[in-house]
Amino acid sequence: LSAIGSLAERVRGPAKVIVDKFGGKLHDEMLKRGIAELFGCAEVEVITKGERHVPVACASIAAKAEYEKWLRSYEEKYGLNLHGRNNLAALFRHPHAREICKLKYIK
């Protein structure tokens, strides 16, 4: 939500925000409330195949690029290959697994 928060600082009060669905029902509701609060908008719609809307597709591409950048930085920092599916066991054995998996932020 930090990227969404920085956008919210520049854009106030859109009538509607569309979000591409990628989580479960509870995740969707938390996302709706958080975005509505950040933007002060009346309607937040979480939809499947949201990329059919050009702005959602553009945001999805930007998010994917940032995710790939994050993966590369962690691969370099910790000497891991995070792109392969067969590397899960090595990841969980890594001494910094909790940080890499972002588990240390869960309370």
Describe the fold and architecture:
By secondary structure, this protein is mainly alpha-helical. 55% of the residues lie in helices and 9% in strands. The chain has helices at 2-10, 25-39, 54-78, 88-93, 97-100; strands at residues 16-20, 43-47. Strand 1, helix 2 (25-39) and strand 2 form a beta-alpha-beta unit. The longest helix has 25 residues, at 54-78.
List the helices and strands and how they pair.
Blueprint lengths: L1 H9 L5 E5 L4 H15 L3 E5 L6 H25 L9 H6 L3 H4 L7
Parallel strand pairs: 1-2
What is the approximate shape?
Answer: elongated
- Along the chain, the helix and strand elements come as HEHEHHH
The low-confidence parts are none
The termini sit apart by 18 Å
Q: Number of DSSP strands?
A: 2
Helix content: 55-70%
* Oligomer description: single chain
Report the radius of gyration as a whole number of Å.
17 Å
Give the class from helix and strand content and strand pairing: mainly alpha
Number of helices, where a helix is a run of at least 4 consecutive DSSP H or I residues = 5
pLDDT averaged residue by residue: 79
Largest beta sheet: strand ordering: 1-2
Strand content: 5-15%
Query: Main β-sheet, in a few words?
Result: 2 strands, parallel
Task: Give a quick precis of the structure.
With 107 residues, this protein is mostly helical.
